Every structure is written in structure tokens, then in C-alpha cells.
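Re: the 80-residue chain
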Amino acid sequence: MTRTNLLSKIQIFAMAVMANLAVVMVRAQEKAADLKVDVDVNKGGDAMGGDWMSNPLVWVIGALILIVIIALVARGGGNK
């Protein structure tokens, strides 16, 4: 058996295994249990307020911190 023939058989086998795994994953998702879960996302009244993530000031400060960290990493400490 030649080397190319062996490699093509291995490739076909690997593709068949991946295809079978994909089918198993799809079927596992298909048979999921129907759970009746009620999640309350409106907690309200917590210590930091319910809408701190929607505050633009939080996003601006976060972006500034990210820019400073990237600048420090790119600079490399400045030791030569």
C-alpha cells in the first residue's frame, strides 16, 4: 500500500468519525429535557443599583483602563 493511499484512507476515516460525532451531538440536543425554569432577572434594590452596567461613565473608565494596559504592554517596560 502506498503512502498516499494510506493517508487518504486515514483522512476518510477521520472525516467519518467527525461526521458521526456531529450527528451524536445533534441528536443529544434534540432529546433535551423540557425543564420549567423560571428565572427572575429583575432583582432590583441591590447595593450598586440595578443599572450600573448601562452607565456610560463605567464604559468610559473601562475603556481608558484597557488603553493604559495595552500601552504599558506595548511599551515593554522601557528598559533597554
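The chain has a mean pLDDT of 79.
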